[in-house]
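Comment on the following before class.
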Amino acid sequence: MDLAGSAEVTGLLKAWRGGDQAALDRLTAVVHAELHRIARRYMRNERPGNTLQATALVNEVYLRLVDVKSVEWQHRAQFFAISAQIMRNILVDAARARGSDKRGGALAKVSLNHALLVSREPGAYILALDEALTGLSLIAPRQAQVVELRYFGGMSEEETAEVLKTSTRTVRRDWQFARAWLQRELSGA
């Protein structure tokens, strides 16, 4: 999304926060393609034939966003970060509902870089990654947020730094630390 599009999203978020319900409709039209791209990234981790598809995931995000009242919308990056977090929660809930092993015992132990390609049960991978991210957030909350924004939200270092109100250098270090920590956790080392 270009700078003009980013400014438009920010303006619509602020109008929506101010009570303009028509702004939500305009916002939906503007951000739909980007949300769908994020949803497709998430859905690559799901098993083939899953009843939850990218479009349904985006629609569920819209339904949950409408109920969000406590967020002081600031900018586009914040909106996509929250949307990515909602998508992650929806997929984790769906994986749990399918009866996936909560501890990920059926998973092959692999590196974070290869996990998406070799997971025997993608729903179980989502659960294992969610559990690992939850563990990371207990010891390093900012680094866990960096993973969520970069890996799940598809944000650049600059966008992540904007959301977290930090420098790109800090985001880069946090990303390296978090990837190493998650790789260790997911490989069982």
About this structure: Residues 39 and 54 are 5 Å apart (CA to CA). The chain has one domain: 3-187. Residues 108-120 have pLDDT under 50 and may be disordered. The two ends are 39 Å apart (CA to CA).
